[in-house]
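thought: fold this chain, then report.
action: predict
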Amino acid sequence: MTGADAAHGRESDRMSDLSFRLMTWTFAAIDLVHSHLEARAGSFGIREGTTFVDYGCGPGRYTLPFARLAGASGRVYAVDVQELALETVRRKAQGAQFGHILPVLACSYDCPLPDDCADLICSPDMYFGV
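observation:
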């Protein structure tokens, strides 16, 4: 693997940008018809001050509800191998004025977060392609 591949994740380790956009659109359509994100996010036991990892955050459909529950004293690491996902999460976090959402680029199965950095880790909407 080249240095650029290691820094940005190998192309084969993530979905294409087009697939990501289609997935994002599909989630948005589902959420319009059946919005359950807040209730489901609330079921994870996140409280004010919780540090949380949203592993495989995708377009951040759970990241913002998690951040609302964790509050300004908490922290949400939004981790994904897809750079477009992290750009989407950054944009949503800025729009919601959530400075406690920290996007993190993973490379394949390697995540740069240190051990014991969070109270909870979750991956509610991860899909695997073969």
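thought: worth noting. Confidence is low (pLDDT under 50) at residues 1-9.
final: tokens above.
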